[in-house]
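Per-residue structure
===
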Amino acid sequence: MTVQTPPPIPGGSAQQVAFHRTELNIILSLYGRMVAAGEWRDYGISALSDVAVFSIFRRTAEHPLYRIEKRPKLRNRQGMYAVLGMDGQVMKRGHDLRTVLRVLERKLIRAVE
């Protein structure tokens, strides 16, 4: 697990966007199921001034497979939650975190041999 926080801004108020406990419970529930399935192995959380990011890795030293972003400035537009792929393409965006994460839950459902 990697947690990154930016250094405080000298002489200014450092306001950060972060995931709330209920949001983290939803994300970590999905993360735990994917770890149990052997798909994911590590994650990182970044709390920046305009966005909070939960990055998901297959291995520790790789680029993130997926990024779950929270951008409160987009709350009244297309939604503040988004899932981005490895290439930065938006896979799903919306107002409700559970519905946005469904795009990743599809990866969990597979045919059993």
Observations:
- The CA atoms of residues 84 and 94 lie 12 Å apart.
- The helical segments are 21-36, 97-105.
- The chain has two helices and six strands.
- Residues 21-36 form the longest helix (16 residues).
